[in-house]
Amino acid sequence: MPEELRKGLEGVLVAESSLSDIDGSAGRLVYRGYAIEDLARNTSFEEVLYLLWEGHLPTESELEPFEAKMAEERAVREEVLSTVRELAAAEENPMAALRTAVSMLSAYDPDDSTGEAGDGEITQRKGRRITAKMPTIVAAYKRLRDGDEPIEPRTDLSHAANFLYMLNGEEPEDTIADVFDMALVVHADHGINASTFAAMVTASTLSDLHSSVTSAIGALKGDLHGGANQNVMRTLLEIDEHDLTAVEWAREALESGERIPGFGHRVYDVKDPRAKILGAKSKALGKAADEFKWYSYSRAIEEFMAKETGIAPNVDFYSASMYYQMGIPIDLYTPIFAMSRVGGWVAHVLEYQEDNRLIRPRARYVGPEDREFVRIDQR
Ligand SMILES: CC(=O)SCCNC(=O)CCNC(=O)[C@H](O)C(C)(C)COP(=O)(O)OP(=O)(O)OC[C@H]1O[C@@H](n2cnc3c(N)ncnc32)[C@H](O)[C@@H]1OP(=O)(O)O
Ligand SMILES: O=C([O-])CC(=O)C(=O)O
User: Fold this and answer.
1) Among 185, 198, 263, 359, which one has the highest count of C-beta atoms within 10 angstroms of its own C-beta?
2) Is the CB of 190 under 6 A from ligand 2?
3) Number of independent structural domains in the chain
4) What separation, in Å, do the N-terminal and C-terminal C-alpha atoms of the chain show?
5) Pseudo-torsion of CA 57, 60, 65, 69, nearest 10°?
6) Phi-psi region of 290 (alpha: psi -120 to 50; beta: other; left: phi over 0)
7) Are 194 and 59 within one domain?
8) Which helix (H) or strand (E) holds 35?
9) 290 tagged catalytic
């Protein structure tokens, strides 16, 4: 047995995957061999789901029935919506509400869990249903929290446009739906990140897909992972409300030993390629609205961090100002990340199931040895 301790499993290979590849020194990300820049520019989220789940980019005649099947699965049963209603009334955190509602979807899934772990077709059908329903849950939560009734999904809109429609009660402009769709594309997969690993660990015990996705949502929620996008926007708002410039704020935060949200990465040594794509969109939205401050604060922090620390932005840094300028409430940024990353979670579970092995690392025991046992009445 190797005795080397790798805290945080840093650099440890745990699987072979043909889903996504990251070159951390070159700042390059590919999904199944396609550069993220090409996918972001040219494909829809549905095409990327097809790519991840089926292994190749769809032709038009493959995409059409795939989109139709996804759209048919968007509606969420009243029983689940009624739980979402209760969670909204209790002011539950939206990621926690999503985690609970996704877990509950399993009660009404038409596929039985028996034999699921060895059957990619069941996993894929369940994956399609969960992915299709997550936007309906997130939008319903937001509307109920605001005292509005949920809006039923439409089947004639894309995954991205339908979410914005259910959220706001009106069809989004094409340009906004396209930006949102691109955000879903770039968040869909990223190697064995913490939430994907959580999904794989659960799947490796031959559990069911709802359990895997529920585990993954819990992992994505944390501040060191998907939760960072909300913290970025809270930081930008704090800067805006105070007299400090963005650079002064960042200097003070660093000097007091804080981590700047949206910076740093376990795999990238350079700027995350997704931050470049999202940064350009954040800038374009600022230009369209003639309001540059969010992008300007962000750029100033990026330049300061590069000069002072050499640490570059990750995917969560520019998605924050981008979503903010689209009018999306801050605490929905991480649920939106989950709405996209579920595509990757399902793909990794499907891939891992093909040659499953229980994931079970070890800890080096550093506790006491050979203690003499004393009965409770004599301690
Ligand atoms: C979708 C995603 O999950 S992307 C990541 C989202 N998370 C964040 O943005 C939260 C802020 N970032 C971080 O906390 C980290 O960069 C992580 C958790 C993402 C990666 O952490 P690790 O790989 O464990 O890097 P580690 O913690 O070893 O950091 C290396 C050095 O960079 C510093 N550092 C890393 N990130 C930051 C940051 N955001 N702000 C300031 N310093 C940082 C650390 O203090 C450390 O310095 P030291 O060696 O002098 O102690
Ligand atoms: O890969 C990681 O560790 C975190 C990340 O950027 C992602 O999950 O998108």
Assistant:
1) 185
2) yes
3) 2
4) 38
5) 50
6) left
7) yes
8) strand 34-35
9) no
* pTM of the complete model: 0.97
Q: Are residues 99 and 169 in the same domain?
A: yes
Q: With beta carbons less than 8 A apart as the criterion, state whether 53 and 129 touch.
A: no
Q: Which residues of the chain have pLDDT under 50?
A: none
- 225 CB near ligand 1 (under 6 Å): yes
Other Cβ atoms within 10 Å of 294 Cβ, number = 24
Residues 184 and 35 in one domain: yes
DSSP notation for 346-377: HHHHHHHHTT-----------S--SPPP--GG
Is residue 71 domain-resident?
A: yes
DSSP 243: S
Q: Which domain holds residue 158?
A: 28-216+339-353
Dump pLDDT digits (tens) for 88-108: 999 999 999 999 999 999 999
For the chain, what is the total number of helices (H) and then of strands (E)?
Answer: 16, 3
Say if 368 falls within a structural domain.
no
Test site for ligand 2: of 52, 220, 225, most ligand atoms within 8 A of the Cβ: 225
Q: Are residues 91 and 130 in the same domain?
A: yes
Both 149 and 234 in one domain: the answer is no
Please report the atom of ligand 2 found closest to the CA of residue 316: 6
Do residues 64 and 141 both lie within one domain?
yes
Report pLDDT digits (tens) over 3-47: 799 999 999 999 999 999 999 999 999 999 999 999 999 999 999
